[in-house]
Specification:
By secondary structure, this protein is an alpha+beta fold. Helices cover 34% and strands 23% of the residues. It is globular. Bound molecules: adenosine-5'-diphosphate (ADP) and magnesium ion.
Length: 591
């Protein structure tokens, strides 16, 4: 047992700590605050405290635990709200009132609740790490598959069906020399990635319902994306949209170092939401980690790793899991603060030199894998992390390191947000490496997706080139086909890419509708070009009523879009007939 020698914010130096290990968890002071040894020199340990250290004094005890920072895994995770140390915030509020005290014990998994366990193995079977031995209906949306814990292999000598708490014995294995009792619960050291059999490439679209993401910058299951943006550009709204609509089996939302009232808003709005496909409460497939800016900074890192460990655990059951973290910059700031106190040699902008490796250690835990154990299954963890560069300056270290790691970039743009173009995702600076990974997926809904996407990108690219000329000499000097291109580019931006998260009809767009919307715009372009060829003036085309009809496409509901599309297409075709150009507009009758 050691004693505190010095306290400096979250950093504690303790003497008498021989025998402890780096990353070992210690309990500090009378209240038993959670800390982690991060350095050892002889008897002296450098400890980072994950809880508020105010009032701790030299001479108070530090107790080694022999454990490393671990997450509790088992039924009861879904629907929970945790702090960075996986203490249940709801349980804490119950036991200590609305004011949350430090040091308080609030186990991650409720100890008194019983779960109905149905075994899937029988006496005599030999099982090992990763094998599924039975299931528990954790929530109506998530079936919890109970897996043999790490390092265990043996023959089943007892297996029980019925209702159990997470601590009671559900099975007994005869291992080599000894017996091993299994319960519904296990734990895992959070800094260590959970193993899998083999890695696959990301594949299939992580549907978000946001056209600019799904269609233009797709995120594949098992992929990694960064969402950088200045203040108020839509990082939080974008991540909420992902979690709300993603067709994943379950999601993990890590609120990391953002303001408490914003996190409270997020939690509050999620409590009202329904899972879109089943109509069940969305929280039945969500886990929240709420680690706000007023909580101890060191716990931000713990929260990130606790979150990704839970994600891997459900992946190992064979699920597709989405994890979002808002914001990874606040975690990096915590690293900088600790580095400063440790008087480490700072790297760029005061961040520690291991910033990049720590960030990639987190993102690399995304992936689509063949899981260990029987039966065969494939699971995935997809990660989307927000980055909050100060002053929206993307050249700063956290953004730059993140960009080197991720496969998709959703670049939020202050100028677009100021113009209230939402989602304020810049179509020229964003990118995705997952186009091949989702090609087959898209072709089922929108044959030729890749070509349509490339054509839209070409038009937007051309627009940005023409903008320079327009700035210099005005739009009037452009040839008609360039004027038309600018009109079509505007349609793509305003009538396709722009999409309000708060519009009932438009907040979620099915792939079918997205594909048809863009096809309508490109068809307009094609028909209009042939009009120009037939010497119809550009003005006639621009003032055609189909332009307004295209602008209203997004208000048409997903369910009826396909049925209404032919009439829109007909309108585009007939109005834009060379011989009809001057004639009365037949589509006007139905307006
Ligand atoms: N997709 C969107 N649709 C509609 N409005 C949006 C969208 N994204 C952002 N906004 C608007 O921008 C505001 C700020 O977004 P927010 O996500 O809180 O920014 P950040 O987290 O980057 O600071 C929101 O309150 C909302 O009014
Ligand atoms: Mg935010």
């Amino acid at each position: 047992m050691g004693k505190i020698w010095r306290v400096s914010g979250p950093l504690i130096i303790a003497d008498g700590m021989r025998g402890t290990q780096v990353y070992e968890v210690v309990e500090i002071g009378d209240e038993g605050l959670v800390g982690e040894v991060i350095g050892l020199e002889g008897e002296r340990a450098v400890i980072q405290a994950h809880e508020e250290t105010l009032g701790l004094r030299a001479g108070e005890e530090v107790r080694a635990t022999g454990r490393i920072l671990s997450a509790e895994l088992g039924p009861g995770l879904m629907g929970s709200i945790y702090d960075g140390l996986q203490k249940s915030l709801l349980a804490m509020i119950d036991s200590s009132g609305a004011f949350i005290r430090r040091g308080i014990q609030a186990p991650a998994l409720p100890r008194d609740r019983r779960w109905a366990f149905t075994p899937s193995v029988k006496i005599g079977d030999t099982v090992e790490f990763g094998d599924i031995i039975g299931t528990v209906p954790e929530t109506p949306l998530v079936e919890h598959r109970i897996m043999v814990p790490y390092g265990v292999k043996g023959r089943v000598t007892e297996i029980h069906e019925g209702e159990f708490t997470v601590e009671e014995t559900i099975a007994v294995l005869q291992c080599k020399a000894d017996k091993r009792e299994l319960s519904l619960m296990q734990d895992w050291p959070v800094r260590k990635p959970r193993p899998y059999r083999s890695r696959r490439t990301p594949s299939g679209l992580l549907t978000t319902g946001m056209r600019i993401l799904d269609y233009m910058f797709p995120l594949a299951l098992g992929g990694k994306a960064a969402v950088p943006g200045g203040f108020g550009t839509g990082k939080t709204v974008t991540q909420q949209q992902l979690v709300r609509w993603a067709e994943t089996d379950l999601n993990i939302y890590i609120g990391c170092g953002e303001r408490g009232n914003e996190m409270a808003d997020v939690l509050h709005s999620f409590r009202q939401l329904k899972e879109p496909r089943s109509g069940r409460p969305l929280q039945e497939k969500e886990i929240f980690i709420a680690n706000t800016s007023n909580m101890p900074v060191v716990a931000r890192e713990a929260g990130i790793f606790v979150g990704v460990t839970m994600a891997e655990y459900y992946r190992d059951m064979g699920y597709d899991v989405l994890l979002v973290a808002d914001s990874t910059s606040r975690w990096a700031e915590a690293m900088r603060e600790m580095g400063g106190r440790l008087e480490e040699m700072p790297g760029e902008e005061g961040f520690p030199s291991y910033l990049g490796s720590r960030l990639s250690g987190f993102y690399e835990r995304a992936g689509r894998v063949d899981c260990l154990g029987a039966p065969d299954r494939v699971g995935s963890v997809t990660i989307a992390g927000a980055v909050s560069p100060p002053g929206a300056d993307f050249s700063e270290p956290v953004t730059q390191h993140t960009l080197r790691i991720v496969g998709a970039l959703f670049s939020l743009d202050t100028a677009l947000a100021n113009k209230r173009h939402f989602p304020a995702i810049n179509w020229l600076s964003s990118h995705s490496q997952y186009v091949t990974a989702v090609r087959d997926w898209w072709n089922r809904f929108d044959p030729g997706w890749e070509t349509t996407r490339a054509e839209a990108q070409r038009i937007l690219q051309k627009e940005s080139e023409l903008e320079e000329i327009v700035r210099l000499v005005g739009p009037e000097s452009l040839p008609d086909d360039d004027k038309l291109l600018l009109l079509v580019a505007r349609m793509i931006r305003e009538d396709f890419l722009q999409q309000s998260a708060f519009s009932e009809a438009d907040t979620f767009c099915t792939p079918k509708k997205a594909g048809l919307m863009l096809k309508a715009i490109l068809r307009f372009h094609e028909k209009a070009r042939s009009l120009l060829d037939a010497a119809v003036p550009y003005e006639t085309i621009r003032s055609s009523p189909v332009v307004a009809r295209i602008a209203r496409m997004k208000e048409i509901r997903n369910e009826t879009f396909e049925e209404k599309y032919p009439s829109l297409r007909e309108a585009i075709d007939s109005v834009l007939q060379p011989d009809a150009a001057g004639a009365p507009d037949p589509s006007r009758a139905e307006e």
